[in-house]
């Protein structure tokens, strides 16, 4: 079975220096890097809120592909790129979107710097587009099929998503103090069923279908209306305004709807400009998405993950990594979590062929260690050397041999209750605090996993015997940052009795 065998550190150093490009190669590479510097973003949904998100990302220079249903139900369509589905083009605050039937059309639109919109409810285009980031902004109040592994970074907008489970983070959409907040653990505030307060009105500002049938608007967006005025007809039945104000949104003519569906919106503030500009809510939500995306961009391709799975499990009385936790082998639980972080190259150090085979199925590179008796330090060295070798060093720094690799995240396999959210927080803290050693812990005491900044690589490679990084953490205590985790997450399995639930 082909596995990755790592050369000695001296051999590795010599090889990496020989790989340094010439000046011409450097210049060409830098030009290519500028071309490839912007991320590919897929936004599911192209309504007014999704358009506010697109505006923030478009302004930051990212490439954007949006998907919609065949008949969009966007009420605030004058400020929504979903309009491109039935008008073939849409322009909102300097952004221009074009409808694409085919992959080739979408690619052409994206290449010239515009936004492509496709009628693709299942977002099947992600198969060929291969986005760096997926943003689910459908706003269905539930998850209709987005998975955390759909892209290297997945953002859920509004209720229905849980950070660390079906997405990497959630953006709060409820009006108020927390609007636009990034949620890294947990969910957004549940849908209350009560519209947000705009100009002192909530439910009154909504225009709802009076019967099943096609929408026939009797007013246009931007018109002033009075309470009790007929503003639309659905299924032959009149729809009355519940308040006076300006029509801020209205579905296009001919759209089939069900009784009770929101088909329009009235704004008591009566500002005509509000009908044609992105809302404060959409901008706030878009700001949260941009912040999360920028954080991911800062981390992407700068870290590596090493899973240590070479122990003999003597105290457990057998191969503990194959023991079932909630019906899943312990090692597989860890590999599932690592798979969530596809933006980072990942390695598992093991002497177990079954673990190695499963890792390869998940695009995790196995590094062979058939000498577990030499202690954990050997696994650390093998994993670290594999991680460094995976990066082509453009301008290495003496002592670290690299410029791109900023740190390596080491995790053990026998912490089955560790959460994706905690792992993610460790990466975020490391990216915000260069030079730090970041670990999970509780009450000021650090534990596993640990992310080591590149400045500590040389000393990690000098460890020997059954000694992990604890002594280095003690040596550089002032540089250690602890991400709080609960007791169950920090529990590792050494003996059979450790499989029992932790009392917290």
Identify the notable features of this structure and list them briefly.
Rossmann fold; seven-stranded mixed sheet; OB fold (Dihydrolipoamide Acetyltransferase, E2P); 24% strand; alpha/beta; 504 residues; Spore Coat Polysaccharide Biosynthesis Protein SpsA, Chain A; nine-stranded mixed sheet
What can you tell me about this protein's structure?
- By secondary structure, this protein is of the alpha/beta class.
- It has three domains: 9-17 and 300-499, Alpha-Beta Complex (Spore Coat Polysaccharide Biosynthesis Protein SpsA, Chain A), CATH 3.90.550; 40-192 and 279-296, Rossmann fold (3-Layer(aba) Sandwich); 203-268, OB fold (Dihydrolipoamide Acetyltransferase, E2P).
- It is 26% helix and 24% strand.
- The chain has 14 helices and 28 strands.
- The strands form six sheets. It has a nine-stranded mixed sheet, with helices on both faces. Strands 24-23-20-25-27-26-28 form a seven-stranded mixed sheet, with helices on both faces. Strands 12-19-17-14 form a four-stranded antiparallel sheet, with no helix packed on it.
- The longest helix is centred in the middle third of the chain and has 20 residues, at 280-299.
- The relative contact order is 0.10.
- Mean pLDDT is 88; it is low at 5-10, 12-35 and 393-402.
């Amino acid at each position: 079975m082909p596995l990755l065998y790592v050369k000695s550190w001296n051999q590795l150093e010599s090889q990496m220096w020989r790989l340094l490009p010439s000046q011409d190669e450097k210049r060409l590479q830098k030009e290519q890097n500028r071309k490839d510097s912007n991320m590919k973003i897929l936004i599911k949904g192209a309504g007014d809120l999704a358009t506010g998100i697109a505006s923030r990302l478009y302004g930051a220079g990212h490439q954007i592909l949006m998907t919609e249903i065949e008949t969009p139900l966007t009420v605030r369509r004058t400020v929504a790129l979903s309009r491109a589905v039935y008008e073939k083009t849409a322009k909102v605050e300097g952004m221009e979107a074009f409808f694409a039937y085919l992959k080739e059309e979408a690619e052409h639109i994206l290449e010239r710097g515009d936004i492509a919109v496709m009628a693709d409810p299942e977002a099947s285009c992600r198969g060929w587009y291969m986005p760096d980031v997926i943003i689910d902004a459908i706003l269905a109040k539930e998850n209709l099929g987005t998975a955390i592994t759909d892209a290297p970074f997945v953002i859920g907008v509004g209720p229905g998503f849980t950070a660390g489970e079906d997405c990497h983070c959630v953006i709060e959409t409820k009006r108020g103090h927390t609007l636009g907040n990034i949620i890294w653990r947990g969910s957004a505030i549940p849908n209350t069923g009560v519209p947000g307060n705009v100009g002192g009105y909530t439910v009154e500002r909504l225009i709802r279908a009076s019967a099943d049938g096609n929408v026939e608007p009797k007013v246009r967006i931007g018109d002033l209306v009075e309470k009790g005025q007929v503003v639309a007809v659905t299924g032959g039945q009149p729809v009355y305004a519940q308040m006076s104000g300006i029509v801020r949104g209205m579905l296009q003519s001919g759209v089939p709807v069900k009784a009770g569906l929101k088909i329009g919106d009235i704004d008591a503030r009566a500002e005509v400009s509000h009908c044609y500009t992105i809302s404060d809510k959409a901008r706030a939500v878009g700001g949260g998405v941009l912040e999360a995306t920028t954080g991911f961009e800062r981390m992407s391709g700068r870290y590596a993950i090493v899973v240590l799975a070479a122990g003999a499990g003597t105290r457990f009385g057998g191969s503990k990594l194959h023991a079932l936790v909630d019906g899943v082998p312990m090692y597989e639980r860890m590999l599932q979590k690592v798979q969530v972080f596809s933006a980072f190259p990942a390695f598992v150090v093991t002497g177990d062929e079954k673990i190695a085979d499963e890792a390869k199925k998940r695009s995790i590179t196995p590094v062979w260690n058939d000498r577990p008796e030499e202690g954990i330090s050997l696994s650390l060295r093998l994993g670290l050397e594999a991680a460094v070798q995976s990066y082509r060093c453009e301008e290495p720094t003496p002592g670290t041999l690299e410029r791109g690799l900023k740190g390596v995240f080491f995790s053990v396999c026998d912490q089955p209750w560790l959460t994706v959210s905690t792992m993610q927080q460790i990466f975020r803290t490391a990216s915000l605090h260069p030079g730090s050693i970041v670990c999970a812990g509780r009450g000021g005491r650090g534990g596993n996993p640990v992310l080591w900044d590149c400045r500590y690589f040389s000393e990690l490679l000098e460890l020997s015997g059954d000694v992990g990084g604890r002594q280095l953490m003690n040596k550089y205590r002032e540089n250690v940052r602890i991400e709080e985790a609960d007791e169950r997450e920090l529990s590792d399995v050494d003996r059979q009795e450790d499989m029992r639930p932790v009392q917290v």
